[in-house]
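@channel sequence for tomorrow's demo:
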Amino acid sequence: MLKPRLLAVLLCTTLPMMACNAEQNGDPAAPQAATAPAQPADETAAAAAPGPGDTPVTEQSADAAGSGTADAAEAAPQVEAAPYDGPVPVEGTHYVRIAQPVELAPTPGKIEVVEMFGYTCPHCAALEPVLDNWKADLPADVEFRYLPAAFGGYWVPYARAFFAAETLGLVDATHNA
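structure tokens (generated this afternoon):
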């Protein structure tokens, strides 16, 4: 009985490693990537030159492996977003105006921005440093608020903890802890 289980475990662990190795070694059985058209020499050199925030993959992997999740999120290089230069968004095509928007705590004359988050969500945790930087530069007519997602199960106690911290005035001290 133990041998079939051992065989199954070995297959489940070695097959993915073999698949990764086949792609690295250029195995003819591995699917070929589509080739891009050749670029002029000056564009090729510019594309190959590392940017100011670029670090080799090995350094990033070592940094992330040697620290916790929060440290890895802080160590990740912050990329400046390029300004939008596309077409002007059109109502009804690119977005829908909400006729009766729900406001958590409306303040007359202020724009309310609400982040729905979960303390156990890795995507929310990865976005938090970006939001902290963004919140520091908000104009005076914008209010930023948190709204914990209580999707059920293990999300609910964390949402309750947020509301308890909010009631006690401890959100600033506990939210990123």
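heads up for whoever presents: Strands lie at 111-117, 142-148.
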